[in-house]
Amino acid sequence: MLEHSEAYISNCKDIGILTEKKIRKYPLRDANLIMVLKAYAIATHKPFTIHSTNFDIVADHELYLTGGGLLWLFDFFENHSFEYLKSIFSFIFTNAEEKDVTDFKNYKGYQNFKGLTGVRPKAGTKQGAVLVRTYGPVTSPQTVEYNFDTLAEARKEVVSITRFFPIEEFTLYRIRKMNKNGRTYYYRRVVPLFIKETKRGRNSNLPHLRRST
User: Fold this and answer.
1) How many structural domains is the chain composed of?
2) Which helix (H) or strand (E) holds 131?
């Protein structure tokens, strides 16, 4: 589901649900971000199935709900039955009562969506991307690495460089830097070379919600 999550995050940023701008005190936790993507998938009739142990699939993102995105999400919850929400969004509503669903001001399960609670990311914990080209004989392949400050820059290079070399030779990684116990660790996570084209600039409407019966 990595490809779906990356594409849906891109879509949600394009239509104004999510933003990378630090407009709230705390960014979305991994699990809460997954819940936003699940709501988006349901509202737009797209596939998205993920196990609770895989919430870290979006760990490399630091995102916030926009004002419009928060209102859209609350509207989404309000337009579905309590039983449905407890079944599909159990992470949020397991310990909730039916009245909590529309208690957007006080229900604790909504606090991270509003940026009121969470974990502040440490400075310098994230960085860029690397594009790796692997070519030559299978028995003795050669590799070349191209480093970038952002995934967006790396994907622009993919478009350019694959005019000259087979796309099958390339793998794109998001690089994450973490400091732990006084030591620095670097992690690579494979991400899609391309993100599915969206209606960027042609449709700024949030997904339409239909009331569930």
Assistant:
1) 2
2) strand 126-135
* Nearest CA among 4, 85, 84, 74 for reference residue 44: 4
Structure tokens, 144: 């070349």
Q: Which residue's structure tokens are 């690089």?
A: 175
Radius of gyration of the chain (CA): 19
In a domain, 213, yes or no: no
pLDDT digits (tens, 9 = 90+) for 102-117: 999 999 999 999 999 9
Identify whether 196 is part of a domain: no
DSSP letter at 99?
Answer: G
pLDDT digits (tens, 9 = 90+) for 57-88: 787 788 999 999 999 999 999 999 999 999 99
**Does one domain contain both 34 and 89?**
yes
Alpha helices in the chain (DSSP H): 2-14, 30-43, 67-78, 82-88, 90-93, 151-161
Q: How far is CA 122 from CA 55, 117, 133, in A?
A: 19, 15, 31
d(CA 27, CA 20): 9
pTM, 2 dp: 0.67
Residues whose CB is less than 8 angstroms from the CB of residue 15 and which lie 6 or more positions away in sequence, other chains included = 198, 203, 204, 205, 206, 207
Enclosing domain of residue 99: 2-110
- Are 83 and 36 in contact, with CB atoms under 8 Å apart? no
User: Domain for residue 120, yes or no?
Assistant: no
Nearest to 130 by CA among 167, 155, 161: 155
137 in a domain, yes or no? yes
